Amino acid sequence: MLSFILRRVLQSVLVLLVTGLVAFAMFRYVGDPVDTMLGQERTVADIERLRENLGLNDPFFVQYWDFLGRAVQGDFGISYRQGRPVGEIIAERLPATLELAAVSGVFALGFGIVLGIFTAIRRRGTAANVIMTLSLIGVSLPTFLIGILLIYVFSVELGWLPSYGRGEVTWVSGWPTGFLTSSGLSALILPAITLGLYQMTLIMRLVRSEMLEVLRTDYIRFARARGLRDRTVHFRHALKNTLVPVITVTGLQLGSIIAFAIITETVFQWPGVGLLFINAIQFVDIPVMAAYLMLISVMFVGINLVVDLLYVAIDPRLRAEGKAA
Amino acid sequence: MTDRPETDPAAGAPPRPPGRLYRAWDSDLAYAFRHSPVALVSAFVTLVLVLGAVLAPWIAPYDPFNPATLNLMNGFTPPGQTNAITGDTFLLGSDDQGRDVLSTILFGLRISLFVGVAAVLFALSLGVSLGLIAAYVGGWTETIIMRIADVQLTFPAILVAMLIFGVAKGITPVEYRDQVAIWTLILAIGLSDWVQFARVVRGATLVEKNKEYVQAARLIGRSPVAIMVRHILPNVLSPVLVIATISLALAIIAEATLSFLGVGAPPTEPSLGTLIRIGQGFLFSGEWWILFFPACTLLALALSVNLLGDWLRDALNPRLR
């Protein structure tokens, strides 16, 4: 058990070091920082002095180590485009993305589980079939088209919800939140649905197939034979055993939500880190790209690690295997 | 599937070996294809779209990228109506610059399909070669290749593609960026997608390489490259075909997404994604056709290729028979 955890942690650190290397290589070799910082009027001596000051003459691994050290402290250099520290820009934008991701995660999980149970219990019903067919279309629709469709229906045609931006934000102890104003909440709805829809269909299909599997097992038949009510059988006996894989998938999808937030944020002009990243690519703002890469890899690796450990903690069978090995 | 004619080769050789074409027609796969309405419809839609893309320069009613034939007065002509000033008619309407939407879709389809197919071919060759090498050579080579694959698999493909596109764009000199954008896009999507192929081929090769025919080939002194390419490769290709089809749908969507986000095909060579990006700007002003028709085309393309891939996977899966 301990060796499993250690191995996973070590692996995670390795992945982080590799992505750090990629980020550093981008930072260091794509575009010459000296070129960017010195103007047209420069002498060879100027260039040399700046190179020395920036540490560009140090050996590769010394530079890499310095880069990691600064990255850990949140120092990713200066954005080429905005001329401000990248760490500052990201810190400013991150709350918007996290709020959006959290709301769509809750949406996906809540509706996914409920619809999954429903379609499993009423397997032959018309409503269940309609939902399953719709989910198939939902999976094939690219995220940005879903966003545009929602904007068209709810903003252009019905005029109920705003189509861009974050609404009014209030500051709660240094964290700008959109949860407390009505314009902030209504601005959240469409992006959250857009972002969560794919994960919702995924969770729904997973819950459904797990539920169908579990409902066929002997202990469910026994529970029915005992004369328990349907509701007790479904929710107290069956549901519990379907949730183990759901937790894994949900955890892993959390990472995807943050990645796909890039698309949703662009469609809705949501002022988060995803939009920042897309603009960075458009204008080849390398420090921002490198910082985003580091940020997202820390999130992904962290989530993967937590999910793996949770899995072991939840499923007693895995723990037993760990002991035997 | 109970009334399927007996085509099991183990049941005894037929008296006269039938022709190649007949055997293809009579195969299990072709039989399953003929009896699946979903496969037939999606194959038909795919075929129509591919033909439209390939024949675009000849069948498109207008040349949308020739400034000489464009007339700004034609801008925003609704579908099927005659423009009051110029008297021109556009089947699917015209955009803000007076370009025929149908023609831009046909040319956009061409770019979308080209990027998708090229990216999948690139990912396929890279992934299959690396998978073969990893499994056949083993040792350090295998560890390094598969670790890279694992690290890359931690991140969603679309994110990897965006990053590669961004870096490649940064390396390219400014004056060439638009010219090579399509190739950068192919590189980015291809590199983001090779892992699947490598993993499947590696798995299959690990099984194959211990079989007797491989040992026999080794005994008669064939070179490792020849064994990998001529002996093992043909036996591991069938799952690759399935992944390639599903990958194509994903690559088309990835391309459209990147272009829609403005980090893909340049406005001078618009793909379906770029067209949707342009069309989104007119959503609020009521010119719905500039957005609607490219979006539908993209949807039809992605959906039909996707369904074909799903069907192929089920049809080739021996457990489902």
TrEMBL record, chain A:
Cell compartments where the protein resides: Cell membrane
UniProt keyword list: Cell membrane, Membrane, Transmembrane, Transmembrane helix, Transport
Transmembrane segments: 12-30, 100-121, 133-155, 175-198, 243-270, 290-314
SUPFAM superfamilies reported in the protein's UniProt record: MetI-like
UniProt domain ABC transmembrane type-1: residue ranges: 94-311
An example Gene Ontology CC term for this record: plasma membrane
Mode of membrane association: Multi-pass membrane protein
The keyword Cell membrane belongs to this UniProt entry's keyword annotation: yes
Predominant cellular place of this UniProt entry's protein: membrane
Family: Belongs to the binding-protein-dependent transport system permease family.
Classification via PANTHER family: ABC TRANSPORTER PERMEASE PROTEIN (PTHR43163:SF2), DIPEPTIDE TRANSPORT SYSTEM PERMEASE PROTEIN DPPB-RELATED (PTHR43163)
Name recorded for this polypeptide: Glutathione transport system permease protein GsiC
Lineage: Bacteria, Pseudomonadati, Pseudomonadota, Alphaproteobacteria, Rhodobacterales
From TrEMBL, chain B:
Subcellular location: Cell membrane
Gene3D superfamilies associated with the record: MetI-like
Membrane listed as a keyword: yes
GO terms classed as biological process: transmembrane transport
Keywords noted in UniProt: Cell membrane, Membrane, Transmembrane, Transmembrane helix, Transport
PROSITE patterns: ABC_TM1
Membrane topology according to the record: Multi-pass membrane protein
Matches recorded under Pfam families: BPD_transp_1, OppC_N
Top-level division of the source organism's lineage: Bacteria
Domain annotation ABC transmembrane type-1: ranges: 109-309
Residue stretches spanning the membrane: 38-60, 111-137, 149-168, 180-201, 232-254, 288-312
InterPro entries for this protein: BP-dependent_transpt_permease, MetI-like, MetI-like_sf, OppC_N
Gene Ontology cellular component terms for the protein in this record: plasma membrane
Family named by the database record: Belongs to the binding-protein-dependent transport system permease family.
UniProt-recorded name of the protein: Glutathione transport system permease protein GsiD
Organism: Roseivivax jejudonensis
Lineage of producing organism: Bacteria, Pseudomonadati, Pseudomonadota, Alphaproteobacteria, Rhodobacterales
